Structures are given as structure tokens and as C-alpha cells.
Amino acid sequence: EPQGGRTERLGTKKQEARKQPWQNFGRDQQRTIYSSSVDIKPEWAVIEQINFPALGKLHCSVGEPEDVMCCGELEYYDKAFDRVTVKAETPLEKTKRAFRNVTTSDDPIMRKLAAEHKATVFATDTILTTLMCMRSSKYSWDLLVTKIGGKLFFDKRANSNLNLLTVNETAQEEVPEEKDNINGVQHLAIEATTINQNFSQQVLVKGGEKFKYDAPNPFTSPEEEEELASCAYRQVTKQTKRQAAGVPRE
Description:
alpha/beta; RNA binding; RNA-binding; eIF3d
């Protein structure tokens, strides 16, 4: 066989490898295993185990969501922040407003809808998002699922890491788990969540007109001394083909 023909084919293979480097991305990387979010007891019974490849084959068709209740009020965005640039920066301000991160079973609206038999499955938007993105999860997390009278309630534990934003979760390098490490999982998550909360309130027009739903914020009370963050909630139902209606809180 002519030497030139062999060289040409080898050169073509190298060119194809350079054109599609992403195909081999991560193949030689070992999956980082982080510690469990909860102590697994030896007496716990294993009901079912689902591996990651099997998760990709799961599918559920749902209908268009229907609003059940909308409550709360929202301040409008301050368009002055559209002019913020690298040269015209604005320091981040710390807000004094309180954020309520309530789990499903502690939500008064969820309890009311369950008592009225509006649905059979109840969960918050955070919990639903976690379940939908579980194939990409690297940090450990856990949920509590309670069945009461034919209804399922998906909850998170008190002080759950689901209350925090994740940082570098899909990075190739392992993130330290030591709690005293400022570049560790816990500190980065707290920092990212704090920045997000402060920024979300700083860019609003204070003391101006508000967009209000018919129902008030369910977490306000006359005895409440803290000012709550500008926030609204939307409860919707989604019907599945198995005739199980779910109510997520958004």
C-alpha cells in the first residue's frame, strides 16, 4: 500500500478527533463521590434502587398546569440597574428582609388544598427541580416522603442543603467538604445563596407601586415584626396520564 495513502487516512482521523474533542470529555474522569446527606441506618429496608442510566429512561407526560391559587405581592424591577457596568458598578447591599423557605407540609396553602382534595401529590418547586435534575446531581441530598390518606407529601428536612444554592457541583475538580474550609461545599453554598437573596431585593423599586395578587402572602401575620422579602407564590395542578394530580408551589 502506498505510504501516502496511509498518511492521509491517519491525518484524517486526527482532524476528526480535533473537531470533536467533546466526545471524549470526562471519559477519563472518575466520578466524585461526596458523603451522604443523611446517616443511613443498617435497619432501614431497601425498597428499590435506581441507577443513573435507568433514570435517563424514565418519562412522565403531564398536561398543561392550571392555577389553583396565587398569593403575595411583588415590587417592580428598578431599570436603573440596566445601566450598571464594570466601570459604573454598584456595591451589593445587605437586605434586612426575611426569606421564608418552608417545606411542603408546613405550607398552610398546601394543607388547605390537601384538605379540599385538590390533588394527590404535593411538593414545592425546589423539591420538584431537585428530582428533575437528579441525573446531574453530584452533591448528596435526601427527601422525606409521607403518605397520608392516599396523598403523598414530598418534604425536605430541617436545615436541608436543598435550601442553599450549589456551587461548582458539575466541576471536574472535587470541592472540599470540610465545614471550616472557606472554599468548601458549605461555605460556597451559603455565600451564593446570600448573594442571590440580597441581589433579588436590591434591584427592586422600594416604596413604589406593587403587583398584588388577590390573596396575601401566607407567611405574614399581625405579630410578624420582620419585613418579608418581596415574594409571591403560585400553586398549580398538573395532571398525569395515571390520573394523579400534583400541586407544586412555585
